[in-house]
Specification:
This protein has 110 residues and is of the alpha+beta class. It has a domain at 36-109: Jelly Rolls. Helices cover 22% and strands 32% of the residues. The chain is built from 3 helices and 6 strands; from the N terminus they run ααββββββα. It has helices at residues 14-24, 28-31, 101-109, and strands at residues 44-52, 54-58, 64-68, 72-76, 81-83, 91-98. The strands form 2 sheets. A 3-stranded antiparallel β-sheet has the order 4-1-6, with no helix packed on it. Strand 2 and strand 3 form a beta hairpin. The chain is globular and about 35 Å long. The termini are far apart.
Length: 110
């Protein structure tokens, strides 16, 4: 993930970039919140491992969790986003398993 300090390209073709994202990451653009860039919720269980650098996981109400290399997160269908708060890129490995929101609610009650 690029750092927050990475300048946005001045010659970005927004329509082409969105088309490429839709092609390479099917379904992702359908869950990204337009009013809160990067924030999303999916019907999945996500296993994330921070390989290098530092990342900030942003949760509801702008709550944040700082993560560093070696940290692990399991997301169970929660609304979240990612940021890299420093000048160094961060690397994460993620695995996603499909789950329905109803299944997630059932697990929390158990």
């Amino acid at each position: 993930m690029p750092p927050d300090s990475t300048p946005k390209p001045t010659d970005l073709d927004r329509d082409a970039a969105l088309a490429e994202a839709r092609e390479k990451l099917p379904g992702l653009m359908d869950v990204i919140e337009p009013d809160h860039p990067g924030m999303h919720r999916t019907d999945s269980i996500d296993f994330v491992y921070v390989v290098s650098g530092r990342v900030i996981m942003v949760l509801d109400d702008d709550k944040t969790v700082g993560l560093s290399a070696g940290d692990r997160v399991i997301q169970n269908g929660t609304r979240h986003g990612w940021r890299v708060p420093c000048d160094e890129p961060a690397g994460c490995s993620a695995s996603t398993s499909a789950a329905s929101a109803q299944d997630s609610r059932r697990q929390r009650k158990a």
